[in-house]
Design brief:
Strand content: 25-35%
Shape: elongated
Number of helices: 3
Oligomer: single chain
Keywords: Membrane, Transmembrane
Distance between the termini: 132 Å
Number of strands: 8
Protein name: Transmembrane emp24 domain-containing protein 5
Largest sheet: 4 strands, antiparallel
Helix content: 25-40%
Organism: Nibea albiflora (Yellow drum)
Length: about 230
């Protein structure tokens, strides 16, 4: 009997998932990541709307391009400069936010030839709505005597969701590191091949000059008398 009541309670919770008010109990992930190409001599800016007492964390990496560096700046909604990086290949910045649009820019104007491949990730905390996270309890009645409380089920689900979100973030960063390392290796491979060909050509030229000089030393230049 107790098992049946527990099953009915769980089913009632999942049935409540269909209602709009219950969906608010599960805050959707607000984290995002983006990869783009920044042409030479260009500056690209992005905007993120934030609410008061929230947290904005920005992590970026230059995956490809000569020098693997870029200028980076963050501005508050009032236009004040919060952070500034000069010719960096990566960086992480955290901002305690207020209401408004935050602007962050990637600047490649110092380079007139090389474009840059840039990856960045936004991690937003405390961006949930102000609705009561426990309002789902009014949909469930008559199961207060169960050994396993629905609050425990909700805590377990939220913990799993949080860990899955963290796993996704780590895997995304690992993919970015992998792409950057692969681009560095390919660049080094092309550089080694180029200079190897140059050295081989110089060695062949030097060898030809040496053979010519040795033969000229042993050449008999005396004229035959007739």
């Amino acid at each position: 009997m107790e098992v049946d009541r527990l099953l009915l309670g769980v089913l009632s919770v999942f049935a409540a998932l269909c209602s709009e008010r219950f969906v608010a109990a599960f805050s959707q992930s607000l984290d995002s990541d983006f990869t783009f190409t920044l042409p030479a001599g260009r500056k690209e800016c992005f905007y993120q709307t934030m609410r008061k007492d929230a947290s904005l964390e920005i992590e970026y990496q230059v995956l490809d391009g000569s020098g693997l560096d870029v200028d980076f700046t963050i501005f508050s909604p009032s236009g004040h400069l919060l952070f500034s990086d000069y010719r960096k290949s990566d960086g992480v910045h955290t901002v305690e936010t207020e209401d408004g649009d935050y602007m962050f820019c990637f600047d490649n104007t110092f380079s007139s030839v090389s474009e840059k491949l840039i990856f960045f990730e936004l991690i937003l905390d405390n961006m949930e709505s102000e609705k009561d996270p426990d309002d789902w309890k009014e949909y469930v009645h008559g199961i207060d005597t169960l050994d396993m409380k629905l609050e425990d089920i909700m805590d377990t689900i939220n913990n799993v969701k949080s860990r899955l979100g963290k796993s996704v973030q780590i895997q995304t960063l690992l993919r970015a590191y992998e792409a950057r390392d692969r681009n560095i290796q390919e660049s080094n491979f092309d550089r080694v091949n180029f200079w190897s060909m140059v050295n081989l050509f110089l060695m062949m030229v030097v060898s030809a000059v040496q053979v010519y000089l040795v033969r000229s030393l042993f050449e008999d230049k005396r004229k035959v008398r007739t």
